[in-house]
Amino acid sequence: MVNYYAMIKEIRDYADENNVPIMQDEGINFLTTYIIKNNIHNILEIGTAIGFSAIMMCLSQPNVKVTTIERDEKRYIEALKNIKKFKLEDKITLIYHDALDVKIDGKFDLVFIDAAKSQNQKFFEMFSKNLNEDGSIITDNMNFHGLVFKDEGEIKSKDLRALVRKVKNYKVFLENNEDYVTRFHNVGDGVAVSVRKK
Ligand code: SAH
Ligand code: MG
């Protein structure tokens, strides 16, 4: 039998050593549970990193396929290696490209946004075209490591303040979006689930 546990630990260790911000247990458990409960089979992921979440989503239940986009070469290569280790080459399609500048064909049950936080709204608008009629969009890092709950004055760096503001604005964008109903879950680093209205 293949020892998945050891293989997953290897990916986690690599992420820790190389500062790759992959999802932690709580977030990944939430995501895979959502996939099972909602019988999701086709997933588009923005932000592969080294393939961890793509692999975990793929293993969550039978017949899950993931298309995932990564713009960083080193991470893309590492993701390729990991996907191969798990023998998931026929289930995970890896695209080495900037997601802001790519055209994806096909429809998905779920779009999972986990890339540059400042671009969340753009990703949402771009890839909602790829969503099945009753599909949903999940966005990670809505809490931005707790920074969204701080007073602006507490955040010293100007760039960081601007980024925090963007995450907050994205939250408002989701709340006011007439086409989707969004719920915010305080798990992991904060996960938003936006379900398209019928
Ligand atoms: N989903 C992964 C973690 C992704 S980390 C997991 O949990 O296992 C975010 C990744 O998004 C980084 O590797 C970063 O290079 C990538 N990224 C950020 N902006 C991007 C863009 N515009 N296009 C493609 N990838 C992007
Ligand atoms: Mg994340």
Write a structural description.
With 198 residues, the protein is α/β, with parallel strands linked by helices. It contains six helices and seven strands. A seven-stranded mixed beta sheet has the order 3-2-1-4-5-7-6, sandwiched between helices. The chain is globular and about 50 Å long. Bound molecules: S-adenosyl-L-homocysteine and magnesium ion. Magnesium ion binds next to loops.
Describe the structure concisely.
With 198 residues, this protein is α/β, with parallel strands linked by helices.
Descriptive tags:
single chain; alpha/beta; Rossmann fold; seven-stranded mixed beta sheet; 6 helices; binds S-adenosyl-L-homocysteine; binds magnesium ion
Give the secondary structure arrangement, pairings included.
Blueprint: H1 4-17, H2 25-37, E1 42-46, H3 52-59, E2 65-70, H4 73-85, E3 92-96, E4 108-113, H5 120-127, E5 131-139, H6 158-176, E6 180-185, E7 191-196
Parallel strand pairs: 1-2, 1-4, 2-3, 4-5
Antiparallel strand pairs: 5-7, 6-7
